[in-house]
Amino acid sequence: MFSTGSGNTYAYGVMDSGYRPNLSLEEAYDLGRRAIVHATHRDSYSGGVVNMYHMKEDGWVKVESTDVSDLMHQYREASQ
After folding, report:
1. Where does the record locate the signal sequence feature (predicted)?
2. Contact between 37 and 67 (Cβ < 8 Å)
3. Could you give the CA distance from residue 72 to residue 70 in angstroms, rounded to a whole number?
4. What is the pLDDT of residue 46?
5. Which helix (H) or strand (E) element contains residue 52?
6. Which of 22, 31, 41, 68 is the most exposed place for a label (fewest CB within 10 A)?
7. DSSP H helical segments within the chain, as ranges?
8. Are the C-beta atoms of residues 55 and 29 closer than 8 Å to each other?
9. Handedness of CA 21, 33, 14, 27 (dihedral sign)
């Protein structure tokens, strides 16, 4: 997993703490989404629509483009 952009240091903290070698695809995508939410919450220059990609040996696949406010809402509701 890797992150780019001004909030990437915050995202790496979440990814490093949640990563394990045997993550399923959905678990990895969820971890990526959580990292995005945390980074955009902590970094005032992050936000808007973000893109998540799955990097493979033969290239990359776009997983989704998501508005960060929707992700924040989704994870806030899940934690309540």
Report:
1. none
2. no
3. 5
4. 85
5. strand 49-56
6. 22
7. 8-18, 25-42, 68-79
8. no
9. negative
The angle subtended at Cα 28 by Cα 78 and Cα 14, nearest 5°, is: 70
CB atoms within 10 A of CB 61: 9
27-41 mean pLDDT: 94
Q: What is the pLDDT of residue 78?
A: 73
Q: Does residue 14 surpass a pLDDT of 80?
A: yes
Rg, the chain, Cα only:
12
Rounded-to-integer distance, Cα 78 and Cα 29, Å: 16
Query: Would the pLDDT of 40 be above 70?
Result: yes
pLDDT at position 62: 97
What six digits make up the tokens of 46? 């992050």
